[in-house]
Amino acid sequence: MVERRDVLRGTAAFAVSSIVGERESAAKDDDALDLALERFAGTGPEYRGGLANHGPMAAEALVALGRSDAVARWVEGYASRLGPPLSAGDPIPGAGWEAVLGRRERVADWGVLFRRELAEAPWPQVLRLWVPRLAPGFVAAATHGAIRTGHAARALGVRETPPRLHELAEGLAYWAANFTRLPESDTAAGTARPSEAIATLALLPASERRSGGFITARLAGLHSFAPFKEVAGQVALNGDPSSFFSNLTETFARVYLENATPGKVITFVHAVTGPSAARLLLPYADAAGRLGLMRYAWQAAAAMYVAMGDRPREPLREADPLEAAALADRAVVNGDEHAIKLTEACLRESALHPRPVYRLAAQDALSRLGRG
Prior knowledge:
Layout: H1 4-40, E1 46-47, E2 51-52, H2 55-64, H3 71-79, H4 107-120, H5 123-134, H6 144-158, H7 162-177, H8 194-197, H9 215-218, H10 241-259, H11 265-281, H12 287-308, H13 324-334, H14 337-352, H15 356-368
Antiparallel strand pairs: 1-2
């Protein structure tokens, strides 16, 4: 007969073993990410004429998916397409930063500024200062600046290391250098949720749309499209920010599925991953920063829909999607940086706000991008 003390001893041993296993797994994740970030620290923010460097973001997303064992091989393949970092020129003074917002050629100078600030103050304090400053330019580089910053912030929230601090500086620098304001009026915030407001949006006429090129170039037509000025102020900002982002990401996961046609897939991936990255910044934003993230993440996603989207012709058919673990496995096999990031964002959003549309969007992107 097994005595009670033996059972308790076995239970305690199992608990200790589980804790040790979790710590070893966490250490493995940390090592994989830091090694990846060290590798990407020697690369530039863009490659091939303006494509954003997704390396640090996708590596962090793989770790968040619980696939740290796949990071090293993925990094080796992706980094081969990247060039060296840019050289800094003139320092950006702490009091003169506004005049340099949106100066893409000064991205390396912005990196110097943020590395200096992160050396002088705790990183959450730096984010509290800069999120409300940069939020109005959320659409910068098709939201890649905000996305990169969000992934870096989440990594630092797990563990503070020099590679992660460097990556936060790079994310903020890319956001600031590409800072772009979309047209908006001075009206107060509206009363609608994103899922309600999207049905009221006036879409850019086909004759005024730009085909081909980068997403930012295809958004240029919005500057002369008068109805777009009212978009930023159409949603309510007085509710719970987390609930707001759940509604926003669910809305644009649906928009993705309705518009994921050749030539538009990557665009509408960003309409989900951009707002989802804004959620990652909420813990480090003050009240003004949270309102800014809500207003301008909505505006950026809506801009992609207005400039490139179409009204649904029939109700979306929601089949049974794959389970989360299967989608994570497929993301690793697929290897496409956008597919990895969207899968992670959708699974994270689904965990907070369970809706099949998230996994359906990830599943669809995995079938269209990379190795399919």
